[in-house]
Amino acid sequence: MAHQGKYRLTYFNAQALGEPIRILFACANFAFEDIRIANEDWPSLKSKYPWDVLPVLEDGEGRVISQHLAIIRYLATKFGLAGKTDYEMAKCDEYVEAAADVRNELLNYLWDTDDTDKPAALEKMETKILPSVYRKYMDIIKRNESGYLVGNGITYADIYVVSILEYVTKRLRMEPKSSNTFHDFPDFIEYQNRIFNYPGIKTWIENRPILPY
Ligand SMILES: N[C@@H](CCC(=O)N[C@@H](CS)C(=O)NCC(=O)O)C(=O)O
After folding, report:
1. Do the beta carbons of residue 82 and residue 89 sit within 8 Å?
2. Number of domains in the chain
3. Disulfide-capable partner of 77 in 45, 82, 118, 149 (CB 3.0 to 4.6 Å)?
């Protein structure tokens, strides 16, 4: 493996958009440098990155990739975890984009400065959006029979979906008015635990920093 240990992933000391990429490295048993920028250092560093945002991947050969979905797709393709056929690759993308949509809903909620909208938006996340996506992902997994979203083994779609939804639920749980009703999805939790116990991933999950989200 030509680039073993040469990749540098730069993100903040948070799970959020960095964690699916870190878990992907762990799943592929591929060493990487896990750089975490302190929030107070960010303003002076921001302009050094291609789009002024993190995460950013450096490949050890002077090449830099920004945008978290570009990074995770690039690595998943390299690691053979992006689907085996064109169709499987497209389905991985589909399931990943659907989870990214849920994160966008979270951001819409968090960034909404109109306090009168907030309770309804939080309720919508907890009682409509999350239950609906959990159900849809579980239906897909049941139909697929392999226990994974796409094909007959783990792909980056499984990793991205469980990691991003973990982040979204952890972040919502921090809201004082969270009802936490969205945690009653044992099928999804069982699937998430199965992915988190996958060889390579299990060691990462057991040793990763404990962070609020
Ligand atoms: N479209 C980008 C968004 C990345 C993004 O919003 N990163 C946030 C952290 S989650 C960031 O860098 N925030 C610092 C800033 O905007 O100054 C991606 O998908 O990677």
Report:
1. yes
2. 2
3. 82
DSSP state of 212: -
**CA pair distance 141, 162, nearest whole angstrom:** 13
Are residue 104 and residue 146 in the same domain, yes or no? Answer: yes
Tell me, yes or no, whether 188 and 115 share the same domain. yes
Reported as a single tens digit per residue, the pLDDT across 172-208 is 999 988 886 656 689 999 999 999 999 999 999 999 9
CB 133 within 8 A of CB 58: no
Q: What is the pTM of this model?
A: 0.96
pLDDT digits (tens, 9 = 90+) for 64-78: 999 999 999 999 999
Q: What angle do CA 92, 192, 3 make, to 5 degrees?
A: 55
Residue among 26, 62, 64 nearest 54 (CA): 64
39 inside domain: yes
Q: What is d(CA 179, CA 177) in angstroms, rounded to the nearest whole number?
A: 6
- Choosing from 54, 66, 106 the residue with most ligand 1 atoms within 8 A of its CB, the one to mutate for a pocket test is 54
